[in-house]
């Protein structure tokens, strides 16, 4: 477990992550929100589902962020003939050694990009469940630990319907955030074209060894008033009780919302969480986990509209949230 004195305060984290974002800005134009989504997942050990049409730099952004963070990276192109062993690895007979040897698959990296994840059949997708939840894989009865940190970044093309499979609910629930990459605005697209007309190299590594773990510890040091925890609970229960839904928010989803709110506060430079942190992350954490009833779908409801309705109905807690109960960062500096 991380020692308390190793935690990085929000102010110092802002300086570290500012360098990271500056380096990414030399490679990718725009998509600041998606960069924050990746960093949020990195800070709370979560997985990222990215939805976007082809050619909006989903792979480029993932690779640039990984390179600048100094992490290992593997890309898996999902297809209908992809087997579970193509992801996790397999044993083969080494004639020189006269014994079976494990050949690790591409899942053994800190950041694993699963391109068009919904093109693989359910059996192959199920091979990811243990990796995403337990941070380990089991091959022929032997368990192997995955790197730390370990993040899955999965991409989905929203306009394709042929040759794709729906992601199981259990797998969707393991993604901390769903992030959407749309086309750039007018000025950003012009800057992107100018940028791509120049010679580009790989981004520099801007995170020192241990920075990620220290920032993770910093997120856990954030003060979260009991009223905020109760607010998250009330949102969970209200979403479950919403009439248009066939499947509501799971306990894991509630935990993810609470952690995402902590990370949002941390990235905002505060040492405590406020209700706006919860509301800012609600759609990103909730919408992809809930399932509408067929009738609600026909009536034009969307998961986003249900989440928005719940956010408007559940009372927002009032208070200072941080002034009366200083965070551990402040106590340690006294």
Description of the structure:
Mean pLDDT is 86; it is low at 1-5. The protein has 334 residues and is of the alpha/beta class. The longest helix has 17 residues, at 251-267. The protein folds into two domains: 4-200 and 207-212, Rossmann fold (3-Layer(aba) Sandwich); 222-333, Helicase, Ruva Protein, domain 3, CATH 1.10.8.80. The chain has a five-stranded parallel β-sheet. α10 packs across α11 (275-286) and α11 (275-286) runs antiparallel to α13 (303-313). The chain contains 14 helices and eleven strands. The chain is globular and about 70 Å long. β6 (136-139) and β7 (142-145) form a beta hairpin.
Give a short summary of the structure.
This protein is α/β, with parallel strands linked by helices. The chain is built from 14 helices and eleven strands. The chain folds into two domains: 203 residues, Rossmann fold (3-Layer(aba) Sandwich), CATH 3.40.50.300; 112 residues, Helicase, Ruva Protein, domain 3 (Orthogonal Bundle), CATH 1.10.8.
CATH superfamily of the largest domain: P-loop containing nucleotide triphosphate hydrolases
The CATH topology of the largest domain is: Rossmann fold
What can be said about the biggest beta sheet?
5 strands, parallel
Number of helices: 14
